[in-house]
Automatic annotation (TrEMBL), chains A, B, C, D:
This is Malonyl-CoA decarboxylase. It comes from Halodurantibacterium flavum. It comes from the Bacteria. Residues 88-170 form the Malonyl-CoA decarboxylase N-terminal domain. Residues 173-418 form the Malonyl-CoA decarboxylase C-terminal domain.
Length: 452, 452, 452, 452
């Protein structure tokens, strides 16, 4: 490695850097018993990295700062993030000057305003990114920031800068789609196990059951800088028809079919893995590319649907049953839904059938008519798929009788359908007019007296 | 592919896109006999891509715009670039509002100014980049723009946006170093032949002679999005001492030495390949990483030098000899240099020796004392290496007696030395005080009466 | 695929092949409900494959035979193997002729004898191997044959032909060494779990604990034709000293050390995976190449030892204690060893210490002096390592207190040491004079009154 | 590396091996100024490698022998090959004993005869093959042997052993097909240039013209042990119809078509590269697999033909014209062919047309009726393709007007057609009945008075 500084550097810096060198060695060797750097030192190092001196020391200095941040104590990291908010924003003098030029109608002034008002931390982040492992450090900073953000709104501009840079760096054009299968390296597979957020993968047998059979697929986006880190992945089942329940799909003992016997591809789980990339959206691109990949490989597969959870349904229904929403459930429905208060209702077939029948119109109302204060569809999963241009295809009561499924939606699951020829029209209806595109059966399930 | 638009789109767009589809097909098939799109249509397409509709159509629309640009006639491309300058800058209303907020001292207003004043074309470029091949299209746009820029200063802001985005996307952290050798794919090797800018590679035998012998190396940076395109490459000779002339290094008949017999690594050629990336600097990083790679592989190699051309020397010397600079050459020197006016002087050993001896003090002056109007060192290659922290090590008259070498520098070549422990100090001396760090022999070559 | 036969082929063959085609399709689709081929049909197909017609139909026919064998019922496979023994040996007429030529002293006759007496099944096996997957089919045939061999000595020549061909095809020059680590594909790792024969790998966490820590390694030989099948693998622990017990090495909670802190490499498990390759020996080559790899990577590692089980010890000791061998244990030893009859002795520290002390001289006798009827060292693991040129380094009572360890060797483990400079001398001493090379402590442990 | 021998080895061996070690080092360093080993020493080393000691020293000793052979002088290599023939054949005692057992009707004796009569050099070759680079050494030995064989028939048994082992090791199941294109490493491409045996590749532009256009393909077989050595390769042109001449296919200025516009695949050149593998046939397998690959990728390609030279035609025609064959050409034909004696006839259109018309019936006779003493078709290329089951499709006079084409066949080229559904029938007709399957036009071209 380069020795990054000359002998006559200021004392404080010498100290910092001697420490750093030692820590560098220590970090590389896996030890953690090193003196830790405090936030002001980190900020000082950041200033050096932004200076002309930083240009020359280049990668070595960026590397030092990254390691020092990674090794710093939690409170010092947070203090450093606050310093980023307070001291590494736009240069006020430069911004003012640029604003004056605009005000005076100077030629090209408007074009120059953007560069002149760039927060200094954006350049800092770009320089940190030059070091090996820099991207990971920045993702870690963002995670630290997200932890603190709810309590510290002053960090919001720093957060915005992260989102801006990450959206540019993790541009869809830089991502590559890879299939995850049983020949994928174990260090990647264990991340699939860890990050699966929808239907927990209990162990390696469960994982294999989702990857190895001929009627199962999994695809992920990767970024070249993070070759062992799937950024987002989707699990797909190839089936003969649109499934109404999750348990049969995950059954370890089920009989697989041949891929060429399938007519339908079911996206039954989609999970993001990098919390540091929150706000940088990949799901839309992933689903659409997987549809294209599957169409090319299996032309006879014509139907692309999800089997999705309804995470907001039970909470909303609770408020409806308590009449807290100003809207009311028709009496027979309300009556039928009292069965939900009997623990274990889902195990009694008659009761379950009756409740299932009552959940359907309630769910139709939940999706088609209920809205939050900002006028939005209530369900976050619905917002994602409808925003992508999918259509709400079918309501499946008793679709997920796991404890989690019962808790969040009384077992309700739904299918969203991606019909390529309608995606853009659906998206526009939803995005511009808030219109939920749904199949006829879903529409007809809406009780006449409940159209809001 | 997605059908990107709904049926009721405006007629002109339908037309554009029908054309596009056809062109798409045609482009894929390699034909060019298709109706071409004019600049206003391209701009319209760009507007759609930036709209909400563009979000949904996503990659497909970006792809269409990219292909349409690539297929457009030269004048229409240029007209489109002008539209980018005129219509896709910052939104003035949004910028004004943000400026007002700053002026009124609104909390967070300064932080918001940057985003509010972003030229719309930056987001446009990011979206074009989402399509397969998008990066290549953007690089092509930049090349087109650079062709026109000298005549059309109004394109400068567009150029700035390109540089800004490319610097972020081609961040050193995203580049990977690869060795180029005789087992490298031919489609990459032919680019090495094509892009070598310093000492032309005449044919495949010449190329092999620079790659295959045990005492030759070549390294390049690659970006994951352009896997077959070396962005910059450096050619290295492993030698026993610091060479004073280029011809022996390139001699097809020379006897190679074993890599482990070498004491010196000579960077004898460094070439950028992507004109579209002009202004995004890789050379500094490349040289330093190659030094690290070689030190790890061949610890006995202790000296890292260049053998570099001096492209500005002959032109400068001409002005000196004409007394146009206000400085004058000592009379004996001036006298000795009249020999340069005798064609073929380099083939007469006595004459060549005499002239060589006279060129050395002149060159010392050229590097150490002569400056341009902005106070800068005259030689662009010197500015590059000195700016990287290298030291001017040795002046080699008669180092390159090729027609090109004679034309640009009367055969003079120089060595710059990269001594890792001095790089930062050298860089700072040069960058902050304009000081040229040179070896003692070079300093001593400066005629006493010529210190400026 | 080629249609391998012409329309006017004999009826029986048409039938066989129609069936085959159907089965082919079925096999590819994963179904097994197909009419099965009987042994005489398989033999008929083999005759065709050996005929001139077989030359032309080539790969397709070989493929058909392979699939038909794989799909055949167990008894028909066995019947086919018997036909291979009876009908596909050397051609008696050709062999006799060649023998006559030798007898008459014909020039070159001796050289020709070998080819003339080649069993026809060798060519058959070579032709089967031309088909994709042919190698796997042949390995399966061998497994089937090994199952039957003890009962059917007439299969021995077929077995010999397999060994001969496999030894040639799986020549060490065709094998490649690959490290198995946590980035290895899961479909290979699950084979490591399945085939570990010495210390069972209980689950994926156990596996990771043997692959991922910086002081653990695993290496395997692969054949290009079986890229997902490790043929043999060895698990290695990097330690500071020679370990005396297995449990601490496998402990999930242990603290790893850095690879560069290690002084010793411990081969604690070596397992073959392909029963079909029984008799083709890789272990010797594997250990020696891993030693070379580790020496290159970690020059400070100077000691290469095993930590090995002693599978024959308990059984032998039982016979000794019953005085069945004609040799007798010294009385104090015999007395001390009665403790072995107390269940759970290993959990009582005093008792365990006493028994351990008594096991050492018994073990020294077992290795150094006891021999089987053919005069061989009794322990198969000892024969392997001593035959490779290793030295018996240390006896470790209480080295493996798992149920299996107690059962086979009352917990005894041993270290064999591979000292490269002695390997050849050790090998020769063992191979030519049956001499067991052992360290001084092991020699001294041998009770004076027990030298046989 | 292992030190392969113990200190008390016999003096001569110590000397040999000391030398070897030095040479080993020297070879690795690329020098050749080392003492060379004589044939008896090589043979002694071979004996050691075959001994029990060889087992232990294993790879290291095999490596030494390989290097010593590679470094030996030409005459010593040849002397060593003679020693292989004389001293490393079957063990006469062992063979005699096995023969006696057969004669006495001993059970299993016939099965044992093969192993007992194996030439000792087969095991020697297998052991040499264990060393890195062993395969290459053996291929070199074979080349040396082939050079000497015509003069030294006593080497034939050694040659047979090579063929036997190579046929087993280079079994089609172990080969992999790879496409050669413009992204193939240059070190492989230069071998394509060097080994092209049919239509010389003049330079890298000529090569690119055969690889890069969308209507050109090249495929080769590789063996895992020789990853940079194509064993055999075929060049393919995708065309709309069956071509009658080679020049348009190789024209650097021609306009390519899209691969999906092609209806015909033309195998216009097939070349073996490894002289050491002479007698181990790959061509049949290569053509058939390439047909399968192309059918899968380009289903609209329905016709697979060659455009082949006729290397024996001019020589045969000469003898016919001299009436040396006992058969005679019909007078008008003979008359027309006198035009061949006019140098430059091919440049005179009228003359060329007339001669072309006369060459066709002569060629029909050459292929369909003329036979050599052993009753075989005269043309070696015809024997290859007809033996593979192809059909003689068309005679193309004036197909190759290059000097070489004129010399060997007066410009005649032919197409052989591979129609998969007929391959086996054609092969059988040719192999069993010597019948040349030809198209109707070819048959009709045979002059009535010349049916032999």
């Amino acid at each position: 490695m380069f020795r990054p500084f000359r002998p006559d550097r200021p004392a404080f810096l010498a100290e910092i850097l001697d420490t750093l060198t030692e820590r560098g060695r220590a970090l590389l060797g896996g030890r953690t018993d090193v003196p830790l750097m405090a936030a002001p030192d980190l900020a000082q190092l950041a200033e050096v990295l932004l200076s002309r001196r930083g240009e020359a020391a280049g990668v070595a200095l960026a590397d030092s700062l990254g390691r020092a941040y990674a090794a710093a104590a939690r409170d010092q990291r947070l203090a450093f993030l606050i310093l980023l908010a307070e001291k590494f924003g736009p240069d006020p003098a430069r911004a003012t000057e640029a604003m004056n030029a605009v005000t005076h109608g100077q030629a090209g002034a408007l074009d120059a305003l953007h560069a002149a008002s760039e927060p200094r931390r954006q350049e800092l982040f770009r320089r940190i990114n030059q070091a090996p492992g820099g991207t990971q450090i920045l993702l870690q900073m963002r995670v630290d920031l997200l932890d603190a953000l709810p309590e510290m709104p002053l960090l919001r501009p720093v957060n915005d800068d992260f989102v801006h840079l990450f959206a540019s760096w993790f541009n869809r054009g830089f991502l590559s789609l890879r299939q995850i299968d049983w020949a994928t390296p174990a260090n990647i597979l264990e991340k699939i196990i860890r990050y699966e957020a929808v239907h927990e993968i209990r162990n390696w047998d469960d994982l294999r059951n989702r990857l190895q059979p001929p009627d199962r697929r999994c695809y992920a986006f990767f970024h070249p800088q993070l070759p062992d880190e799937p950024l987002i992945f989707v699990e797909v089942a190839l089936t003969t028809g649109t499934p109404a329940a999750i348990a049969p799909l995950l059954d370890l003992a089920r009989q697989p079919i041949g891929a060429h016997e399938a007519a339908t591809a079911v996206f039954y789980s989609i999970s993001n893995t990098q919390r540091g990339l929150a706000g940088v959206s990949f799901g839309n691109f992933l689903i659409k590319q997987v549809v294209e990949v599957l169409r090319a490989e299996l032309p006879q597969v014509q139907v692309f649907v999800t089997l999705s959870p309804v995470p907001g349904f039970a909470r909303w229904l609770e408020t409806m049953r308590r009449d807290e929403t100003g809207q009311s459930l028709p009496a027979p429905l309300r009556e039928a839904l009292t069965g939900l208060d009997v623990p274990g209702w889902e195990k009694d077939p008659d009761r379950a059938t009756a409740i299932g029948a009552a959940l359907v119109p309630a769910a139709a109302f939940y999706f088609l008519s209920a809205r939050d204060r900002r006028g939005r569809v209530l369900d976050p999963v619905a917002r994602f798929h409808l925003g992508n241009g999918a259509r709400l295809e079918r309501l499946n009561p008793l679709g997920d009788l796991s404890p989690n499924g019962l808790r969040q939606s009384h077992g309700l699951m739904v299918n969203y359908r991606y019909a390529l020829e309608d995606i853009e029209r659906n998206h526009e209806a939803f995005a511009e007019r808030g219109e939920v595109v749904a199949s006829d059966p879903v529409r007809r399930a809406l009780p006449a007296q409940m159209t809001s």
